[in-house]
């Protein structure tokens, strides 16, 4: 009797990815919806009209927003939307694909897009390795608005504080989670106090994870991306609107 092939673990991320694509290939959408039957949902916040004795309360939206996320699988890792290449061998990635295999939205995605229904689009690029997109360089000259003369300085990395631990009051009401994606694509989540900890504490945590990395900039993964420069160092997590944010390390 031949020995079983142990090169591809049955419960590993590669096996789970194969299962995901097999499930996606076997699904058939048989429900047709007419245009006139579709729901026109309002996704904002509103106030009740008319006189009331108390201040007018906010009315929560009746329908959750739909968020489409692209999950691109390559031979050497995976990306989420246009984010950096992530390794499939980290504990976080293994849990990510295990949750996908169970048919639930991964907790890391749910944290990035709260109060949303998440639609994950699987793209199979396993026959080739990931190639970072080429970004066209700006060829013109910029000027500072306040000075009116002289070229605008290029974006430079921030000289951040030394790496170290950050003390968190887990019993406080302002505890939140911030996810930091390192320069090599490995992500880690940190609990912080939104009204106490500052942007410089995020730099301290990022430096602790990559002590040999040179100067870098933390960039919020938003649309458009938002760099956290020297002017943001003393802002609290709450002031910088970074609760449950995903932040990338850029050299």
Describe the structure.
The chain is α+β, with helices and mostly antiparallel strands and 251 residues long. Among the domains are: 67 residues, 2-Layer Sandwich (Nucleotidyltransferase, domain 5), CATH 3.30.420; 76 residues, Ubiquitin-like (UB roll), CATH 3.10.20.90. It has 4 helices and 10 strands. It has a 5-stranded mixed sheet with strand order 7-6-10-8-9, with helices on one face. A hairpin with a 5-residue loop joins strand 8 and strand 9. One of its GO terms (biological process) is proteasome-mediated ubiquitin-dependent protein catabolic process. GO terms for molecular function: ubiquitin binding. This is SEP domain containing protein, putative. It comes from Angomonas deanei.
Structure described in brief:
The chain has 251 residues and is an alpha+beta fold.
- Spans of 5+ residues with little confidence (pLDDT < 50)? 1-9, 28-51, 146-155
Q: Assign the CATH class of the domain at 175-250.
A: Alpha Beta
Percent of residues in beta strands? 15-25%
Mean pLDDT: 75
Q: What's the CATH topology name of the domain at 175-250?
A: Ubiquitin-like (UB roll)
Count of DSSP-assigned helices? 4
Largest sheet: 5 strands, mixed
Kindly state the percentage of residues in helix: 10-25%
């Amino acid at each position: 009797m031949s020995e079983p092939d142990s090169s591809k673990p049955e419960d590993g991320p590669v096996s789970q990815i194969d299962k995901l694509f097999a499930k996606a290939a076997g699904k058939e959408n048989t429900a047709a919806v007419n245009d006139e039957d579709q729901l026109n949902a309002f996704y904002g916040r509103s106030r009740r009209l008319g006189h009331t004795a108390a201040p007018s309360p906010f009315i929560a939206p009746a329908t959750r927003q739909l968020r489409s996320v692209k999950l691109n699988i390559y031979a050497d890792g995976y990306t989420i939307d246009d984010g950096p290449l992530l390794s499939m061998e980290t504990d976080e990635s293994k849990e990510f694909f295990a949750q996908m295999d169970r048919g639930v939205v991964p907790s890391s995605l749910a944290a990035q897009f709260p109060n949303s229904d998440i639609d994950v689009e699987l793209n199979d690029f396993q026959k080739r390795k990931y190639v970072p997109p080429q970004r066209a360089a700006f060829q013109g000259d910029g000027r500072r608005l306040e000075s009116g003369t002289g070229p605008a300085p290029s974006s430079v990395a921030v000289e951040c504080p030394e790496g170290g631990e950050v003390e968190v009051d887990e019993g406080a009401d302002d505890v939140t989670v911030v996810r930091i994606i390192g320069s090599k694509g490995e992500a880690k989540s940190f609990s912080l106090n939104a009204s106490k900890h500052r942007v410089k504490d995020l730099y301290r945590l990022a430096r602790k994870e990559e002590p040999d990395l040179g100067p870098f900039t933390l960039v919020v993964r938003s649309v458009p991306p938002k760099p956290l420069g020297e002017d943001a160092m003393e802002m609290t997590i709450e002031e910088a609107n970074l609760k449950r944010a995903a932040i990338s390390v850029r050299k």
